Amino acid sequence: MLLHWRGRERYTVFDTDYGDGSGVRALVQAWRDDPLRPARLHVVARADGLMPGFHRIPQAEPGVTLDLLSAPLDIALAQLVARLDFIRLHGIAREGTAFARPLARIAAAHAQLQASGLSAAQAAALAGEGFAFEEASPSEAHFASRKPRLPVPATPQRRAIVIGAGIAGSAACERLCARGWEVTLIERHARPAMEASGNHAGIFMPLVSKDDNIPTRLVRSAFLYALRYWEGLGGIGRAIDGAACGVLQLARDAAHAQVQRAIAASGHYPPQFARWLEQPEAEALLGLPAPDGGWLFPQGGWARPGSVCEAMLAACGSRLQAHFGACGARLERAGDEWTVIDEQGQVLARAATVILASGAGAAQFPQAARLPLAALRGQVSHIDAATLPALPLVLCREAYVTPASHGICCAGATYDTDPDPALWQSSHDDNLAKLRALLSDPHAAAKAPLKGRVGFRTVAPDRLPLVGRLPDFDAAGGTERLREVPRYPGLYSLLGYASRGITWAPLAAELLAAGLEGEPLPLEASLADALDPARFVLRARRAPRGPHCIPTDPEQ
Fold it and tell me: Which residue positions does the secretion signal occupy (predicted)?
């Protein structure tokens, strides 16, 4: 393998059994010790004991990426977006032969393979897909198929412009700078996190569902990655203001609780991730009435979005050049570069890659104006903590309330389409009514003065973010497949995070950065497609455009 990886920009290894991780650790050490190593090493391995799906595990070593896949081998390979340079097959005697075709699809030209314990049928299936086994060493093979391979992605210029210094843009800056990119950040406000990311507290928590649908799987992947990612920045409650105190999501009523019990009985969720609590246990934990029980998410909690942005931008170091108080008014493309121009016609920056991460502000650019994004007004109420019972964790149902921080509890948030940024007494009253219902106390926060904050979240009709290269709606014609939708060259989006900006931001930025670099993606192909902004080009043709949905997720 050492000779095989030398002289390459990146090298990807696939292992069918992560085991105790010792094999991967040895591989990384060999990479570290080789002065002629590739700049980036990507290790993808199947692992047991994890929740279903793909898990990107952040590494202390900047040039190393580790993905652990929890899925049957054939399904994992069919969903893996990567080019494999070295393949290690072992412990798969009972896997059948269905894995051979998806493996060949993602094998790089001249990929090397090491195998042990293959059945005769498995070896024959691999040979039929283009793997040529060595006569002198039947456990080794190389990929010799003459079928056309996708071209190796060109090394990018590694210069980008990010528009917007909220949670989405700050994460994009950090993930690109970590890969050696030089990034210019343009923000119209005087400092980061002044729009929706400026709230005092944002909640992070996963979803559960009976059918483990695409939104549930996406939020789970984003939530688990965010927990690992924040540790690399110093941790919630340490470098980042907040607390991983847990979240208790109460059932709405007895009927809703019965549905949740059925989900809990399925056994899909380990207790450290999500645990259903019946009334006695929920009330003992909370110290308040919980008549229908609820879901405890022990790893959930709250964080101040602005502190998350500050930690991410600080991690960028000297690779980041930030322009605050600068408003990018338009984008112009000339040759291979985009130019960002301000309202006075002055050039702010030029680069081949531009990432729109400015929330509702992205609609001012014609290239993004047809994206079906709604700006939803959300008012959060700031309540004197002394007027509320002391909460050991975040409590939510139709609304949420956070534990005290600096003498304040945050309660909310409202959802409406009015563009007024001012605090409304009616929205405050609505927050207080939901808070009192949540606490089962009609006198909680009595005479609470009108204090809080209004922010505007951008929301797509399906409530999922828009992560990837922007589609050209006008050039789409009769395109019916996602990969054939025309795109603006070098123009990308990180938009539509709705009420889950804290949760979405790290994984969405990692997904975008990995795609720009031509690396293995941190998500299954079907999940990455579900976030592709071009999905709306296809949907606009298939059905009339309906009204924007307003989410009710009690986060941020």
Answer: none
DSSP 405: B
CA neighbours within 13 Å on the CB side: how many for 543?
Answer: 7
Distances from the Cα of 495 to the Cα of 161, 163, 172, 195, 534, angstroms: 15, 11, 11, 13, 13
From residue 288, how far is each of 142, 291, 300, 439, 538 by CA, in Å?
64, 9, 19, 7, 48
Task: Give the H or E element holding residue 248.
Answer: strand 247-250
What ranges make up the beta strands (E) of 325-415? 328-334, 337-342, 347-351, 353-356, 374-384, 394-396, 400-401, 408-412
**Boundaries of every domain in the chain:** 2-143, 160-196+306-372+462-542, 374-459
CATH topology of domain 160-196+306-372+462-542: FAD/NAD(P)-binding domain (3.50.50)
**Separation between Cα atoms, residue 218 and residue 79, nearest integer Å:** 14
Token couple for 107:
């094998």
Q: Compute the distance between CA of residue 234 and CA of residue 273 in angstroms, rounded to an integer.
A: 21
Query: With contact defined as beta carbons under 8 Å apart, do 269 and 346 qualify?
Result: no
Residue 448 has pLDDT above 50, yes or no: yes
Tell me if 463 sits within 8 A of 551, measured CB to CB: yes
**CATH of segment(s) 2-143:** 3.40.50.150
Q: Which of 401, 490, 499, 469 is nearest to 167 (CA)?
A: 499
Residue range 80-132, pLDDT digits in tens? 999 999 999 999 999 999 999 999 999 999 999 999 999 999 999 999 999 99
